[in-house]
Amino acid sequence: MITRAQTILKEVFGYDEFRPLQKEIIANVLHKQDTLVVMPTGGGKSLCYQLPALLFEGLTVVVSPLISLMQDQVAQLQQLGVAAVYLNSSLTPELYQQNSARVARGEIKLLYVAPETLLKPKTLALLASVKVDCLTIDEAHCISEWGHDFRPEYRQIVACRPRFPEAVCLALTATATQRVRADICATLSFNASQQFIASFNRENLLLRVAPKQNPLAQTLEFLQQHAQQSGIIYCFSRRQVDELAEALQQHGYAAKPYHAGLSDEERTRNQEAFIRDNVPIIVATIAFGMGINKSNVRFIVHYDLPKNLESYYQEIGRSGRDGLRAHCLLLLGYGDIAKIRYLIDQKSGQEKQVANYHLNIMLGYAESEQCRRVPLLAYFGEDFTHTPCNMCDNCLNGKQEQVEITIPAQKFLSCVARTGQLFGANHVIEVLRGSHAEKVLKHGHGNLSTYGIGKDFSKAQWLHLSRQFLQKGLLVQDFDYGSLKLTPKAHEVLRGQEKVYGTVQAEQAKIAPEQEERLEYDRELFERLRALRKDLADAQNVPPYVVFADKTLIEMASYFPQARTSLRRIHGVGEAKLEKYGAEFLREISRYCREHGLQERFASTKTVAATSPRATSASKAQLITDAYNAGKSIADLVQQFGIKPVTILEHLFKSVREGRALRAEGFAEYSQLSLEERNKVLAAFEKLGENFLRPVFDALDGKVSFDELHVLRLYYLSRKQQSGE
């Protein structure tokens, strides 16, 4: 049956291969084994039940918490030619009855319902009249009281399970700690062995944190770097959302607000404008996003500090769902911390302790000097060791230069001691900077020897230093009240027995320009295809990404397919979409190629004309391959083309995938491994295949770097070519 699943994967969904864990999960579901899937947003959870639904004889029922999410998923399935409907309060009575009748007649493969709809007697009666083969519970963390979005009605789904004795149960979530997973399994009576936990690492997300100094100017600077791209800006409060959306509009950006204070009509209108690419930017509170399946969100900005790391992870997860690169910027402002702490102070008991704990975890991530992915993934119980990731600011910037900060440390620690170890960082800094604030004068702290001795640093710089003192174990923070206490190590520093090294934040922090990603496609053709997609989507009243994802358009703009057989090879082009849109897209691509003297690039004999004025970076892979086969070394190519070795290797890998031959000896020369070590790597590729490097890396116990694996994969493939395999 899994062979048939592979065929459906290409014919219906247009994908050549499964993503990690999808094949195993689908096989488990097809064998009617109850299954819990924890997979990050954009990891491909939906396919884990949508594909089995097409192989099951009966109906797959999908319980989903949000109307917008149901509508989006059903629209996408219908575009693929899959019989899918939903039942919820957004339907007119006539449409509700029509959809119910189609389910009763056995015409539907996937039925989406809210938990409240599922529990209605008329829904249960409808489902009792048909064969239900699969019960899928999406956003399954809602079942758990420990989940970040617990919903009591989700618990009641459990009582429905005995009504569908032949149905396998599949529970899916994008974020679940070990405690939440255990609760879901216990509630649904799942076997603990039937859990599939994918890596929480979203490799395509570029993570950055910048000190928040002039947030509007910083945001405008960031948006200039992402012109014409779609993104979400998250703010702490409704007021901030309205003010920022208005400010962006005044600076010429098409941005709309979204928060719970707007009317239902305005929220819906703004969300639809964003989803349909009519408005590129949405400014929102956390109320926005859970039901958004928009695949081409290219950036997320956190204008204010999130309350906890799980919320942050979920929010950045709304970008880059198509697998392409997305940029996530967090502006870290210490005034935001004070606002959050004020709200936490309104709580009491365990609730207050938990909120403080989550805030400190969030700050630990934001102020970390190590790879961002280490603390982020550690929160979900995942040990990330593949550093540098080269997709976060800390890894890209390299290790920041450490300077001696012993004297500032002594000043700060001394002030903590002289104020009685009863105050937080903000008050200590007020004293150091000689503030005339009422609180400082009321406590007599204007008379201390440390009063005014820290005017050489700004408040933001002192706050940055204070967090380093905490991380270095010179201070601890009271769990309940936030006051700072000295540690034994602090006393050593004060006595001059220990030096302190760290970093001093620059007075004015600019958003570092991001290195342009070298995507090998014709950007003008991509824009023309994007305009065509928008016209087709508007004509059908669906979001553009429902027609084709950006990744599909990028492949079209890379390979210039001009025949149906060629278009079928493009990612995301299944049979239904080929029939529906193939002629329109082929016509546009062919017209463009005629105008610019371009040819298809699938076969090695069909190459982009190097002399064409429109032969953009799409031709670079061929130029590099030709130079390599003519005898140039990889080091020569790096110098000739002015790009990194890994980019040279990516171009060569693209060429070999397109069927072009590569000489093998150049890769052996470039490798730094011994012959014995190389042979072990080649044996691993032979056993595990060459599509993915991670299985080979793991099989070799992480002893061979990914850089070496990139080289030796090409060596392995070029040797296979020579042997005629």
Strand and helix map with partners:
Blueprint: H1 2-11, H2 22-30, E1 35-38, H3 47-55, E2 59-63, H4 67-79, E3 84-87, H5 93-104, E4 110-113, H6 115-118, H7 121-128, E5 132-137, H8 152-155, H9 157-160, E6 168-173, H10 178-188, E7 195-197, E8 205-211, H11 215-224, E9 230-234, H12 238-250, E10 255-258, H13 264-275, E11 281-284, E12 297-302, H14 309-316, E13 326-332, H15 334-345, H16 349-366, H17 373-378, H18 393-397, E14 403-404, H19 406-418, H20 425-432, H21 438-442, H22 459-471, E15 475-477, E16 484-486, H23 488-494, E17 501-502, H24 523-540, H25 544-547, H26 550-559, H27 564-567, H28 575-596, H29 620-629, H30 634-641, H31 645-657, H32 665-670, H33 675-688, H34 694-699, H35 706-723
Parallel strand pairs: 1-6, 1-7, 2-4, 2-5, 3-4, 5-6, 8-13, 9-11, 9-12, 10-11, 12-13
Antiparallel strand pairs: 14-17, 15-16
Helix pairs in contact: 1-3, 2-3, 15-16, 19-20, 20-22, 24-26, 24-28, 29-31, 31-35, 33-35
